[in-house]
Amino acid sequence: MSSPRIATNREAPSALLERFIQEFKFKLCITEQEKHKVYRLRHDVYCEELQYEEPTDPYNKLEYDIHDQNSIHCLIEHRRTGLVAGCVRVVIPKPSSPQPLNQLPLQTYGSQSLTHPEFHPEKLAINSYYEISRLAVNPLFRTKAKEKEKDILANTSTSTFFSVEERQLFSLLASGLFITGYSLGKQLGKIQVFAMMEPSLPRLLALTGFHFTKVGETINFHGRRSAYYIDKQKAESGLKKTLLPLYLHIQQTLAPQLEEMLAQETSIPLTM
Q1: Is 70 in contact with 92 (CB distance < 8 Å)?
Q2: 3-state secondary structure of 176
């Protein structure tokens, strides 16, 4: 995943963020149709591109797992094209549910790697934490495409689909998705965040002011990954001032959507 640089060329960070807010839309996935857009992007990235997961629904090209039952999904949509540029989910364990729904995904596949004496899910109030996971950026919206992706773009005549000005905004997608995940958790009253990340991602997120604490040993799970933790106080005190307008915009945009979602009680088991 490319570095979430805040500014490119000579454009001021505030102007770049303003354009990003104008050209991309933040949407919670309330309907099954909206969730399928997320599952389809996850299939394209995690199953086809990276080959990390087996397709859950090969016929419809969808990827989902049991933890999606306890998740809130968000996507970032490019306004001009209507394309899904990226997605992320927040997973909220339910204490009354059987395993693995009563724990975080990283506990399901990496519980033995969690070694921090203090920041461990089992030592924290279960209603205080959640996990940000399944973050994915559409290959078409990456600043540096792999060679095979360039070939795909050339063959589908989309290599000139985006202007230079539009492409300047792509580097904000990764940090935008993580800020989205954090914002959702905060609005749900959660104060502690976990995430399983490859070594480079925490360094990149530190550029936005999210300084995570490593709380687990590195394991081989879809490559080398480790569990990381950050709490509300550290996240908000460290957030770069240049990103504050984006953070506030995401909060204001998602708040009414989250209220609608909770009113409809859409957190239901998958029926695929």
Answers
A1: yes
A2: helix
Q: Which amino acid, one-letter code, is at 201?
A: L
How would you classify the pairing of strands 192-197 and 219-220? unpaired
- Domains located in the chain, CATH noted: 13-264 (3.40.630.30)
| Nearest-angstrom CA–CA distance, 206 and 248 | 19
Tens-binned pLDDT, residue by residue, of the chain (272 aa): 333 343 444 578 889 999 999 999 999 999 999 999 999 999 999 999 999 999 999 999 999 999 999 999 999 999 999 999 999 999 999 999 999 999 999 999 889 999 999 999 999 999 999 999 999 999 999 976 544 445 555 555 544 489 999 999 999 999 999 999 999 999 999 999 999 999 889 998 999 999 999 999 999 887 889 999 999 999 999 999 999 999 999 999 999 999 999 888 644 443 33
Q: Against a cut of 0.85, is the pTM above it?
A: yes
